[in-house]
């Protein structure tokens, strides 16, 4: 199943709780990061994780190993089940997040290539491929790869094998869920759900793409179930 992960980037605690409650039945996880945590405080994580869905911390950690470890420790003491870090900071910093996540029974995802137009300035030309190799070396659980460039995400799939791919850029950034859902393990959707007049209905629409998992005929190997 291709999971549907809500990027809950709203600006208040009340909006976050309300949208999480309405959309929860159609989601597989919720991702929160700076917009919501800076607005509502980290206790919103305790509150959302109590709702039962896995909660992913999107602080795109990019620091020296000790600081990365401190951030990850804080994350996993607030009910998160996964953390996202950057890969360009190098092996030791990525390992700090991976090891801390695994110490807490959680997962660590590494950004290999971002979804916005400017991402090509640095991630193309071999960097994304090198980060993908680092992901395999460090034992990270998966990568973040762009729904806005399915061909790049498919290429990254050939490098990381059956590790998970979570893919943002669907909806508001123009990514087509039908083009990406067959390649990845989860689509990350924000504004197209939380800015909708009917967030539950929008989430339900995206949930239809769950069944596309592993259907991309160009994949060179079967996906993990
Ligand atoms: O465009 P939206 O509203 O659907 O939101 C997309 C979310 O995914 C938002 O939280 C943004 O910060 C995040 N994101 C990207 O859009 N592109 C990326 O390359 C990476 C991320 C991200 O979440 O990285 C960690 C998953």
Write structural notes for this entry.
The protein is of the alpha/beta class. The chain has a single domain, classed as Alpha-Beta Barrel (TIM Barrel). It is 42% helix and 17% strand. It has 11 helices and 8 strands. It has helices spanning 13-23, 34-40, 43-49, 65-76, 91-103, 120-123, 127-138, 150-160, 177-180, 191-194, 199-207, and strands at residues 3-7, 29-33, 55-61, 82-86, 107-111, 142-144, 164-168, 186-189. The protein has an 8-stranded parallel beta barrel, surrounded by 7 helices. Helix 8 (150-160) links the parallel strand 6 (142-144) and strand 7. Helix 4 packs parallel to helix 5 (91-103) and helix 5 (91-103) crosses helix 7 (127-138). It is globular, with a radius of gyration of 16 Å. The model is unreliable at 217-225 (pLDDT under 50). The site of 6-(ethoxycarbonyl)uridine 5'-(dihydrogen phosphate) has 22 residues, from strand 3, strand 7, strand 8 and helix 10. Its EC number is 4.1.1.23. Residues 3-206 form the Orotidine 5'-phosphate decarboxylase domain. One of its GO terms (cellular component) is cytosol. Substrate binds at residues 9, 31, 115, 190-191. Pathway: Pyrimidine metabolism; UMP biosynthesis via de novo pathway; UMP from orotate: step 2/2.
Topology:
Layout: E1 3-7, H1 13-23, E2 29-33, H2 34-40, H3 43-49, E3 55-61, H4 65-76, E4 82-86, H5 91-103, E5 107-111, H6 120-123, H7 127-138, E6 142-144, H8 150-160, E7 164-168, H9 177-180, E8 186-189, H10 191-194, H11 199-207
Parallel strand pairs: 1-2, 1-8, 2-3, 3-4, 4-5, 5-6, 6-7, 7-8
Helix pairs in contact: 4-5, 5-7
Bound molecules: 6-(ethoxycarbonyl)uridine 5'-(dihydrogen phosphate).
